[in-house]
Amino acid sequence: MAEFLELEAQDGVRMAWNVVPGTKQEAGNCVVPVSAIYTPIKPFPNMPLLPYAPLRCRNCRSVLNPFSIVDFAAKIWICPFCFQRNHFPPHYASISDENLPAELFPQYTTIEYQSPGEGSSLPPVFMFVLDTSIIEEEMTFLKSALSQAIGLLPENSLVGLITFGTLVHVHELGFGTMPKTYVFKGSKDVSKDQLLEQMSFFLNKPRPATGVIAGARDGLSSESISRFLLPASECEFALNSVLEELSKDPWPVPVEQRATRCTSTALSIAASLLGACVPGSGARIMAFIGGPSTEGPGAIVSKNLSEPIRSHKDLDKDSALHYHKAVKFYEALAKQLVHQGHVLDLFACALDQVGVAELKVAVERTGGLVVLAESFGHSVFKDSLKRVFQSGDKDLGLSSNGIFEINCSKDIKVQGILGPCASLEKKGPLCSDTIVGQGSTSAWKMCGLDQSTSLCLIFEIVKKDIPDTTVQSTGNQFYFQFLTYYQHSSGEMRLRVTTLSRRWVAGPGSVQDLIPGFDQEAAAVVMARLVSFKMEIEAEFDPIRWLDKALIHICSRFGNYQKESPSSFSLSPRFSIFPQFIFNLRRSQFVQVFNNSPDETAYFRMILNRENVTNSVVMIQPSLISYSFQSAPEPALLDVASIAADKILLLDSYFTIVIFHGSTIAQWRKAGYHNQPEHQTFAQLLQAPRDDADAIIKERFPVPRLVICDQHGSQARFLLAKLNPSATYNSDSHSGGDIIFTDDVSFEVFLDHLQRLAVQ
């Protein structure tokens, strides 16, 4: 595993197969697709930043890289992708074996270019969209969190404010003498033209003729824009005084009804306003929503309390009345935002569902952040919001206006990307006929991206067969190049180029060559993203059956065994943990949606689709650490047998961190032993998992929920639900640990069945 981590530390890439199956049939037999999980703007301390424009191949537009063949005498380089011969321009005249430009150094397979004078003059823009149809207490929490956030905004950033409940209020922050708002009806969709008309943008000077280029800010003057978008340094006072005056939506709510909340209309107005004022800039709509949308085209439920909010069962049976209409609306909104280059961030804080499942498409296609919490007073929300604006070593590195492109060797096509991006519909010879996620394109828009945003690229090998085995040894490298053109958080435009080379194998005996290059962690994450995607788009899809068939197929192809002899079955160390990952994936919240609302499922999948391999593995298979008097903290098996009365367990399942006290430890703690000077070691034992949990929380976004519980307590369910049920209420022997009341099969039984089926 270590060499895969080294490759990731050099290029930000993890591939499921680091030795690639060379033909279409071989790749099909491998079950896990040829794929890569790539973090486009992962920070590398040693990566050079070149102050000039990249040199591109005149045929395929790929960038000069360490795999290019260079003829120093003739000053020519040959592109590894299309074999085109390119001449070096005059300013490369002095290159030689001893005098290489940085982009040809073998260790700089990932490099960044910063074109001089290409920085954007536009500052970052934040449009806050606040829900006011919430109770007073929540309103107070939200206002206090926001006033803290406003203090952290970059000085030069532009800020706007929209509040909504029954009606949508657009606040004119630039009108200094008194608070002034424009009010729109929540149930009515407002077009961009109507918006500009109603907000009297063209009062002093007539609207320009339609011949004017769109993007020249619709002919708006900077004075009219600065009525609604003001620099943070100037409007902090105005914004805080509006927030202080803000109270909950004044419209009365009948007893048997839900509050009127026109989320979709407010977001549509925010998008149109930003599209008119700052198209193409790094603008973010930050929506703070505290309940279900009940009005407008994106409503998820009616106002009548007698109608329940849609559940997974309703979505499966296609009986969710508002779902398709709302998704269609947010798809159109996503398209508009991608066209403008703007991001939608979602902070959903309510005990009820707010409509994350419907909003998912708009947040994901624009690369927005998403945080789901129970209340605006919860640390998950408050700390996550602070992290967004935090500067220093823990900042998220929010960047904008990204365009991501791929180049590959001619025997590889791209099926698509699973992750936070939108297809730019750039068709070409690279595009496969099979589409997965955002496909049939070789370029994608990433309106918002940060240092941990990771894309899952799915490839297809198109080579039919190998005509002659002797050819293999010379030209058996596949090349991939990823280009990310983006606006850095400092405002300058940069181009990150990553070029990879991977060996391919085919023909008899190639199975043994594939094994050393299999990255089981990356493969598990690819399967998790794929199964989540299939569950969303394929009707009647059975995820458990699909995963089981895939696992059986892999084990019978790569396992060592004698036919029909389960006891002889064994897997190479490269594959040995893969069945365990699949076992935990089958039980995870991505596949088992029974206990979650559609909003929670959508949230979990959105985070899975944007995180790197290490974080995603923790979501699939949580880590467990055991603390006791006998030994230093050590990793424990994710099994009910790890529970002991005299141990503390720390479970990290990414979204939740659980500190679990065994029954004896809990009794001692309740008796207050840790406060007594002679029990100093006990106090240290109690503190150790707290310190480790705090370290994890500081690193992570969204901030996880911390649960501290005792054995046999009600909150212990957070731990028990994740453990392998090796001892249940109906098993014969209990080895001193705990038991789990479940009918789920244990990992041992699962493995037993797997071995029997794999050797058939």
From TrEMBL:
GO molecular function, one term: zinc ion binding
Main location: membrane
This protein's name: Protein transport protein SEC23
Gelsolin-like domain mapped to chain residues: 632-719
A GO cellular-component term linked to this record: COPII vesicle coat
GO BP terms: COPII-coated vesicle cargo loading; intracellular protein transport
UniProt xrefs under Gene3D superfamilies: beta-sandwich domain of Sec23/24, Sec23/Sec24 helical domain, Severin, von Willebrand factor, type A domain, Zn-finger domain of Sec23/24
Positions of the Sec23/Sec24 trunk domain: 123-389
Domain of life: Eukaryota
Role noted for this protein: Component of the coat protein complex II (COPII) which promotes the formation of transport vesicles from the endoplasmic reticulum (ER). The coat has two main functions, the physical deformation of the endoplasmic reticulum membrane into vesicles and the selection of cargo molecules.
